[in-house]
Amino acid sequence: MKIAIQGEPGSFSHEAALQMVPGAEIVSCALSAGVFQALDVGAVEAAVIPIENSLAGSVLEHFDLLLNHDVRVERESLLRIRHNLIALEGVKVEEIERVSSHPVALAQCRRFLAEHTGMKALAYYDTAGSVKQLVEQGDRKAGAIASQSAAKYYGARVLAVEIEDNAENFTRFFLVRRASEAKTDAEANKISLAFSLENRSGSLVAALAELATLGTNMTKIESRPVQGKPWEYIFYVDCQMRSADEAARTREALKAHCSMVKELGFYREAQR
What we know:
Layout lengths: L1 E5 L5 H9 L4 E5 L2 H9 L5 E8 L3 E2 L1 H9 L2 E10 L3 E4 L10 E4 L1 H5 L2 H6 L4 E4 L3 H11 L4 E5 L1 H7 L2 E4 L9 E9 L11 E8 L5 H12 L2 E9 L7 E8 L3 H12 L2 E10 L5
Parallel strand pairs: 1-2, 1-3, 7-8, 7-9
Antiparallel strand pairs: 3-4, 3-11, 5-11, 6-9, 6-10, 12-14, 12-15, 13-14
Helix pairs in contact: 8-9
């Protein structure tokens, strides 16, 4: 299976994709929009995208892309994020003057960086990409923060392992396929929905009350602005389901109060 990811080989998305589909052929894209475009035109069979990190929160762009493309979430997984200090072979920690990584990764390693005042943190577009850059440039004063997989992939060396501030660092990933080709797991017990509301008083409360009446356990809610319509919002919710029938009743209950309801996926909830 060809799977598109955003980022370089050796990234956490790469790791998550192989965890979900061992042996998959990974197609790297520079931008998330490129991932969905590759899926749209059939260049790949699926995409693996991060949707939420337990410390940094939601990847908001990916909610918009899920809504605006004819795709469905087929599976989800959780990946424990372990950040590592990486440099060229033979370089010592005290020689490093600059450390590059994705801004989220840098933010999750503040304590380590504060303890190494000689290292200047530099934001880069991708964790694995920062390792690729230092290897290509042969910069012995540069380091990167990324996965051990990235170090192995590019032939660099791990100098310090698990340097993140908080060990409870997990990212939730979605496996996404074209809607016409997505399959529903027989043990699906979680649904992701997007909906917009009629512009009237109490509409959100009424919609959520419908879910409460059904006994639906909502595990997440997120709002995003509607592009080109100031002060209008799309709401995204995740709900635990006891059956496919409950999922159908949940969709119908929301339709009574919403101007738009889209099911993003009905899948099995990932376990730690």
